[in-house]
Amino acid sequence: MALNKILSGSCIIGQSGGPTAVINASSYGAIRGALDAACITQVYGAAHGIKGVLDDKLYIMDEEDPYELELLRNTPSSELGSCRYKMKDPDVDDTDYRRILEIFKKYDVRYFFYNGGNDSMDTCNKISKYCQKVGYDCRVMGIPKTIDNDLFGTDHCPGYGSAAKYIATSCMEVSKDARVYDTPQITVVEIMGRHAGWLAGAAALATAFGSGPDLVYLPETDFDLERFFSDVEAIYQTNGKVLIAVSEGIHYADGRFVSEAEVSATDGFGHVQLGGLAVKLAEALKQRTGAKVRGIELSLLQRCGAHLASETDLSEAELAGRAAVEAAVSGKTDCMVAFRCARGEGGYRCETELLPLSEVANYEKKVPLEWINEAHNGVTQAFIDYALPLIQGEPERPTEMSLPRYAKLKKVLAK
Amino acid sequence: MALNKILSGSCIIGQSGGPTAVINASSYGAIRGALDAACITQVYGAAHGIKGVLDDKLYIMDEEDPYELELLRNTPSSELGSCRYKMKDPDVDDTDYRRILEIFKKYDVRYFFYNGGNDSMDTCNKISKYCQKVGYDCRVMGIPKTIDNDLFGTDHCPGYGSAAKYIATSCMEVSKDARVYDTPQITVVEIMGRHAGWLAGAAALATAFGSGPDLVYLPETDFDLERFFSDVEAIYQTNGKVLIAVSEGIHYADGRFVSEAEVSATDGFGHVQLGGLAVKLAEALKQRTGAKVRGIELSLLQRCGAHLASETDLSEAELAGRAAVEAAVSGKTDCMVAFRCARGEGGYRCETELLPLSEVANYEKKVPLEWINEAHNGVTQAFIDYALPLIQGEPERPTEMSLPRYAKLKKVLAK
């Protein structure tokens, strides 16, 4: 039981890693919660995550207009700026840590909230441990974020539900478009997720609830090109139209990513492609079948598609941010906010819990193999049951002239 | 003044050319109008446009559930199936025309509605003239449709507003995502429109109302690679981030499409690319600047993105379908429905008018040169004023488990 000692001082909130449709909602939850907390004297937003701390570039959140701050809920990407910055082992090189401590002391920072994925939780964990080691009293909390949904210990991650909804909706629309002519056509959609197939699997929601991909390939199993060709050809022979969803991370048994490996010249191309995996596979299928083909990469669109955000995801993202502040204010530290969820007869319920940072940092959660079908070209009902609640609900979307109205922050720099 | 003779018989509605987010709304308008018209005895939908007529594959629309029919309004792509079929000159080869006449007689078809773009209006025109020539009493009406917005004589085309809204919204989201790190990044977004820049120009709506591309290139002017590099580098030097929108149809002064031409080896690649134009330009910019680059192709997503449809576009699309039936029932024939619009002080107003098919078939309407800026890397306020009303309004979107619920038609074949 943590001691509920009142700790007074300022706080820093930082965003890190790849942006999502709802990371700003988490940050809003944390910023709003911190602004409202009596013991938090000043709320700073770090410009570009931990780099903003190192560079002494902190925005004063107290200066922002409350309405504009609230618009962060519906603003995609990381409005404070993000970074991909790997912290060194402090036992090897503690330069960055000493600098961070210097900044923390300069602004009397007693609360540090870091909003990100795997690498960011590693950063958060290292800073937390360093503060403990040097005896600097600062409560450090991780706020999860990643469309990849691969953080360990939490049912799911904020950002995943909205990306999953974007992917499922787009695949449903493409499925309609790709079947419109009475001529043969094969379409390959490439979906993010280098090591985990949570996003690619979401394409199957389209098939389950209307029309979507015939085949879905995840990176959790080895990709076999000949088996892929025969999967596709079996459907192609029957109806002349095939829609395929692939994770960018599919790889051969020897570990080579299909996106990087050369396919043998007889399969259509023997040189390194600049186009992505979708185009590469589509071209190979064109050589095999003679069909008209098209490769579509959902690219950045899938992670910044705020106009298709899931209200469930959005409100949970905000909840995670608020929960981090509440926990820290109540005395907790060195943890990440996680979700514990119930599905089934009683419906979907989600509540937050805290996990020690050291338990979540650097572990990757993959799609369980039993949620992938035996043919390794689709997901099971268990996957659908898992993902479906996460895409539910349409948020109110502030618009101006029917285009999104995003937050406009002043970003006043602290001195 | 057309004679208002009551013509009794059945009708055929066909969809043709590339699908859009709202072509089914036009077809719904025509189908519903025809079902409600006393003089129209039976309503058929042609499977895959004129090919369905030639193949005697007609769906009986009277058999469909009214609720499912109404869902066509929000169902993207061409639900009856589409085709790209070029009709021969009947004076050279009248085989198809004699077959069409045979089918028209078999089903007592006295009304023919064809929903499509330039090529489809050519088909429509030829069939209309043939019926007149052989003295077969059939009222033929074209219903416009094309995301390309290049049909002659009409203020704009159904399908354009929704695609424009998808493009503007996506560019706004990508703009947020592509500027998130404090490291240099250049992003190129490729937009449809082989010969006309209406769609690429719509990307500028994002810039006008929040954040969007810094540079927009349309196919109406010649593309100059060196000028492009200097445009990009000027912005790159200043802020390290550049977002560029290009039409797929940009071409050099000698007419070669940039997407197909080889760029000199010193510019980074000397071999034919499988990846599209965006990747090609992005790679060339990487060679020049050393920046991280990304090419994004909006691909099919921009034409089937019904979840971002413009209500203005959707209701005008339906209106065009209904107007075609009303005009034909009232005695008109051999025309395409067009829009005449007013913008300005009194707000936006749109009404339908009829144009002779022979006047619209085979002409392409391009973006006026005076709506493109002097540097040929953006559009003027006149373009914004033109396009903005067309993207207004959010339609109600029927959903099921937070995913789109599309029409499920029985498609009962006529015998």
What can you see in these coordinates?
- The structure is a homodimer.
- Helix content of chain A is about 35%, strand content about 20%.
- The first copy, chain A, is elongated.
- In chain A, the strands form three sheets. Chain A has a seven-stranded mixed sheet with strand order 3-2-1-4-5-10-11, sandwiched between helices. In chain A, strands 7-8-6-9 form a four-stranded parallel sheet, sandwiched between helices. Chain A has a two-stranded antiparallel sheet with strand order 12-13.
- In chain A, α1 runs parallel beside α11.
- Chain A has about 425 residues and is of the alpha/beta class.
- The first copy, chain A, has 13 helices and 13 strands.
- The interface between A and B is large, with 69 and 69 residues.
Largest interface: A-B, 69 and 69 residues
Strand order of the largest sheet of chain A: 3-2-1-4-5-10-11
Count of DSSP-assigned helices of chain A: 13
How many beta-strand elements of chain A? 13
List keywords for this structure.
homodimer; alpha/beta; 13 helices; 35% helix; 415 residues
Concise structural overview:
Two copies of one chain form a homodimer. Chain A is about 35% helix and about 20% strand.
Give me the secondary-structure topology.
Two copies of one chain form a homodimer.
Chain A: E1 9-15, H1 23-36, E2 40-46, H2 50-54, E3 58-60, H3 66-71, H4 95-106, E4 109-116, H5 118-134, E5 139-144, H6 160-177, E6 185-191, H7 198-208, E7 215-217, H8 225-239, E8 241-247, H9 277-289, E9 292-297, H10 301-304, H11 311-329, E10 335-342, E11 349-356, H12 357-360, H13 381-387, E12 399-400, E13 403-404
